[in-house]
Each structure stands twice: as C-alpha cells, then as structure tokens.
Amino acid sequence: MIENKTTTTCENNLLVVENLSVNMRNSREKLICNLHFSIPQGEVFGLVGESGSGKSLTATVILGMLSKSLEVTSGSVKLGQSEITSLSERELRKIRGQDIAYLSQNYQSFFTPFIKVGKQFIEIIRCHTDMSKKEAKKVAIHWLDKVHLPAERVFNSFPDELSGGQLQRASIASAIMFRPKLIIADEPTTALDVLTGERILDLLCELKEELNCSILLISHDLKHIINRTNTVGVMYGGNIVEMGKTSAVVSEPIHPYTKLLLQSRLKLNKHIPHVLPTMLGEPGLVAKEGCPFSKRCPSVMKSCDKVVPVNTLNNHHFAACHLVNTEREEQYVTR
Ligand SMILES: Nc1ncnc2c1ncn2[C@@H]1O[C@H](COP(=O)(O)OP(=O)(O)OP(=O)(O)O)[C@@H](O)[C@H]1O
Fold first, then answer.
1. Helix 164-176 vs helix 117-128: angle between axes, to the nearest 10 degrees?
2. pLDDT tens, residue by residue, 39-61
3. Which residue, 205, 230, 136, is CA-closest to 174?
4. How much distance in Å is there from the Cα of 57 to the middle of ligand 1?
5. pTM of the prediction?
6. How far is the CA of 72 from the centre of ligand 1 (A)?
7. Cβ neighbours, 10 Å, residue 196
8. Cα–Cα distances in Å, from 65 out to 62, 179, 183?
9. DSSP H or E run through 70
C-alpha cells in the first residue's frame, strides 16, 4: 500500500524496525505493512492510532510473541545486535526477561491474585539470578521504593489489597528491576483515572532518565504521546502514515489523518466549537489499495488509489501522502 523510502541510519539506535510486514497465515490478509521506525537509546518513541491500527501487533513482533495464526512476511526487527525475528524461543525468553520490559493496560493480571506481591517479586528475581531470598527481598523493596510505593506494605500485600495505580506501579517495578534496554508501554494508563494515569507516565519518564533506556509508548490518546515522546509514528490500517519529531508533527501535520486526530483534541484554553471535527466513515475502514485512509480522507485525490510513496518534508518528518509534494493541482474527489 505504502512505498517506504525512509532510512534508519542513526548509530545510536537501540531498536530498528525495517520493512516489517505481518499477514494472517490463512487468509494472507495484511495486518502490518512495511513498517519502518527506529528508537535511539534514551529516547521515547510514540505509536498512536485508532483501535485496530496495528500498534499492539507491532509490539508483539518486537517481543517475539506473534501468535501462530500470524506470520512475519518481510522485514527485520533489531534490538542492538540481535535480530528478533530469527531468535529461538529460549533466546527470546532471555531477551524478554532482561532486555525488554513489557507493560500493558492489563496490569490486574500481572500478579497472581492469591500470592503476596513480595513473594512473586522474590520468585521473579530468583528465576533470573542466584540471589538468596533475603537478598532478593532487598532488591524488591528497593524497586518498590523507586516507583514511590510504601515498599514494605506493598511487599506484604495480596494484589487485591492494592489500588489500580499501586498495582500498575508494582508491575512497573517488577518490569524494570533488571534494568531493561527497552520498555514497551502499551496503553499503560487506559484502566486508570486521568490523574493516576498522568503520574504513571511521569514515573516512566523519570525511570527512563535513571536507567537511560528507551521507551516505545503506545496509545490511542494523542495527549499522552505529545507530551512525552521525542518522535511519533501515526498508524492507520497497519501502516505508519506519518512520522517525525513529535514537535514537528504536532506543529506542522501533513497527513489528513494526523490533522484530524490533532483537531479532535479538546483544548481547555479555547471555546468549545458548536460542531466538533469528525472523521468520515467508520473506524477500521481501510482501503485495500493505495492510501489506507483514502476511504475516509477529506482531501482524497485520484492518485490516492495507487501506491503512496513516503514523502520527506525534511530529515525528521515523513508522510505517506501525495499532499507533501503535490501543489494540490489535482482534482479532489468531492465528498
Ligand atoms: N492473533 C491475531 N489473529 C488475527 N488477527 C489479529 C491478531 N492479533 C491482532 N489481529 C488483528 O490485527 C489488527 C491490529 O490489531 P492490534 O491489536 O495491533 O490493534 P491496536 O492498534 O493495538 O488496537 P487497540 O488500540 O484497540 O489495542 C486488528 O485488525 C486485529 O483484529
């Protein structure tokens, strides 16, 4: 659908995803198409897009946990020197435990309900190290303290004796205690109230500074992505339709989908308009040929039916849209 010409040649990159495509094994339906992005060490990369756009699936490939019903049909995912798509399950387990930490919205199921949090921490630590129980407890308390929890109390509690925010913090402590190189935070605040969610994201950014790790922050909420990422990729229908330094994408969006996402944010310092901007068509309506957003795009042109090249606005900003280069001399299709 989208012809990708972007390159990812920064020496400092921790994660490099190139030309990644994922299909359903049976139907050959494309779920992810030619993804290219990279995350330098110490930076936060945001993936934003509506439900079903392929954000979590991208995370699943990076974690090497793709379901058997799906297959990687092209591309590469490199974490440091390791090519994730060709590692054995044993090698992947090691990377998942130590190099990549995964935080999901589903923090409630992170801990087994009938075992105290502290005991679960000790088991995880002793599974990866040869520490004694006493030493492992010290480590657990250290990391529970790091995520600003009353460490001793949480250590001695059952999961259902903690609030949602406390549980998410405890799951963060458990995920980061082996000092991962990459944290994948997949909608980590969806199940939390707004303020608690904001604090969790602040905490992640604080820990990133301390660990000098990278973060892949996945969200459908632009608000979270804008404030906390260096670079953002906007996904639609399994494609990254726009990518760039977050400040550039926000101040000068190119793709009509990005523009609509930005317009649909409510701004507290502005009057609420009588009619809020809306998007045409149903979420999940993806064109099979050309630009995946063309069936809903208010600026659709005849050429959008064909392969859309990824056009470069400058070194830090790309969009898979004819609007980058076209002086709009083409006829828009009227909607
Ligand atoms: N194991 C699977 N088998 C078949 N299809 C799948 C599988 N996992 C994901 N998909 C499909 O891939 C597409 C992308 O799903 P994905 O979970 O990545 O979306 P998402 O952008 O993360 O959405 P959300 O924000 O709702 O989590 C969807 O159409 C989904 O139905």
1. 10
2. 999 999 999 999 899 999 999 99
3. 136
4. 6
5. 0.89
6. 14
7. 16
8. 8, 21, 15
9. strand 70-79
